[in-house]
């Protein structure tokens, strides 16, 4: 195996891991946004307690 073959293979592995990590991060951000958006109430907890 030549040196250029090894470098090409390493680059492919690094870019694949980079894309996988970016996809996981994007999925986590979107999930977190949806999760927090579903839990939000119109008033914060302390304001809701004072309003009653």
Keywords summarizing the entry:
mainly alpha, 0% strand
Description:
The chain is an all-alpha fold and 52 residues long. Helices cover 85% and strands 0% of the residues. It has one domain. The model has no long low-confidence stretch (mean pLDDT 85).
Task: Summarize the topology.
Elements: H1 3-39, H2 45-51
For the record, give the distance between the C-alpha atoms at the N and C termini, rounded to a whole number.
75 Å
Largest sheet: none
Structural classification: mainly alpha
Strand % is under 5%
Question: Count of helices?
Answer: 2
Characterize this entry briefly.
The chain has 52 residues and is mostly helical. The chain is built from two helices and no strands. It has one domain.
């Amino acid at each position: 195996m030549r040196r250029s073959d090894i470098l090409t293979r390493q680059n492919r592995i690094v870019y694949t891991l980079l894309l996988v990590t970016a996809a996981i991060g994007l999925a986590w951000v979107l999930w977190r946004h949806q999760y927090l958006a579903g839990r939000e109430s119109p008033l914060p907890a302390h304001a809701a307690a004072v309003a009653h």
